[in-house]
Write a structure and sequence with these properties.
6 helices; elongated; five-stranded parallel β-sheet; two-stranded antiparallel sheet; alpha/beta; 41% helix; 188 residues
Length: 188
């Protein structure tokens, strides 16, 4: 599979996660940094997931899968151990306008959730297109150590400068030069 890395605007998107185990929890932890509009449907959930639901004020329905829960869904995450149920859900969603991620069937996935670092406005994603998730996780840790402590402050300055200047080549050149200077000072 070949996935295009994109940044998706989750504003006003309905997200449903089917499953309440460790994999579902891990995927929910990735999502909550970008949206709190998440519905979790599972007959039971792990205590850690319950804590996350409470912490972020997410919605949890204690129930098994029912296709009524995915009506008008924009993004669906299926993280259940029952492979037959995953296949059933895939068949019920493949002709719908729903972006899907299935934990055990890459061929059913419209997208994957990469390993990422989020520090305020900086987001760095690491993916091996599913071929070596363990490497992606370790490489993410390596990259995380390289991010300067003042990156948040620098990005706020850049954002303010960008919004205060008129669009055009002069603005692009000034912002590029400022970024190049910042990065070149990191190397010293």
């Amino acid at each position: 599979m070949s996935y295009l890395p994109i940044f998706l605007n989750l504003k006003d998107k309905k997200i449903v996660v089917i499953g309440g185990g460790e994999v579902a929890h891990r995927k929910i932890l990735s999502l909550v940094k970008f949206s709190k509009e998440i519905l979790i449907v599972a007959p039971q959930i792990k205590p850690e997931l319950k804590n996350t639901i409470n912490k972020y004020n997410l919605t949890y329905l204690q129930d098994g899968y029912n296709k009524k829960y995915i009506l008008k869904t924009d993004i669906l995450i299926v993280a259940v151990d029952d492979l037959q149920l995953q296949e059933t859900i895939y068949k019920e969603t493949k002709d719908k306008n729903i972006m899907c991620n299935f934990s055990d069937f890459e061929e059913y996935c419209d997208f994957i959730l990469p390993s990422y670092i989020k520090r305020d406005d900086l987001v760095v994603c690491v993916s091996t297109m599913g071929s070596a998730p363990a490497f992606a996780k370790e490489f993410k840790s390596y990259i995380q150590k390289l991010i300067p402590n003042d990156i948040d402050y620098f990005l706020k300055q850049m954002k303010e400068l960008r919004s205060s200047l008129p669009k055009g080549k002069k603005r692009m050149d000034l912002l590029r030069k400022k970024a190049q200077n910042y990065i070149s000072n990191l190397k010293n």
